[in-house]
Design a protein that fits this description.
By secondary structure, the chain is mostly helical. 63% of the residues lie in helices and 0% in strands.
Length: 30
């Protein structure tokens, strides 16, 4: 869902996943 060069790319899912990833990094790695 995060590869924007394929038809299965889902921008809303990719955006949400990126937000969650950054939040996790902030919580556990900072």
């Amino acid at each position: 869902f995060h590869n924007d060069s394929t038809p299965r790319y889902d921008k809303s899912a990719a955006d949400l996943a990126w937000q969650r990833t950054l939040k996790w990094f902030d919580k556990y790695l900072s």
